[in-house]
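User: I would dearly like some help making sense of a protein record. This is the protein in question:
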Amino acid sequence: MTGEEFDAALVSAAFALGADTGWRKVSAAAAAQRAGLDLTTARERFPHRGMVLAKFGKFADIHALTGALTEGPVRERLFDILLRRFDFLQLHRAGVLALLKTIPLEPAWGVYLARANLESMGWMLEAAGVSARGIEGELRKQGLLAVWAWGMRAWFRDDSADLTTTMAAVDTALARADQIASRFTRQPAAAETDISEPFIDPEIVTQVEPAPPLTPAPDGFEDALPDMD
């Protein structure tokens, strides 16, 4: 078993455990025991419970980026990437829903997930050909996070097999973002228009609702994660 396979097995077991017993009883050791994994290796690769969430986010991003569209309008590429990320969440739906219900009781998790999701949006943007660097890049990430949050609201209640409701919500949010950005972006002549121009303008951050409040994680937050148990 490779390191990545070990991590995937432990994370999957942790989310299954979270679904069964609630996330306040989840630990890397308990997940390793559930999956029949070596505890020594689990201790080395998951020194604290927060690593489970970090690895899950990494796997979600990899799933979203693998095989994603690389051609066509930015809006279509982002739609494809975001839906791939929702597909990964769907594989662990019960555990993710249990985690979301636990966050109000675990503020540190909420802070970490807000920060981690913001960084993930940077990967989504770059994969779609939109710069996520610099001040404007940071604003674009927050804009895309607003789109993701709108999709999450739908996914939370979406019990369809093909995520029809989630797809519609993401499409609606991206369309609205595109409309807003077009009002603030200088348009070239029709013959010269590039349909792959990045659509997420900094103004989107103030006009796409609802976006969850983002509280920057304090310095040293990762070092404090072991105390979350």
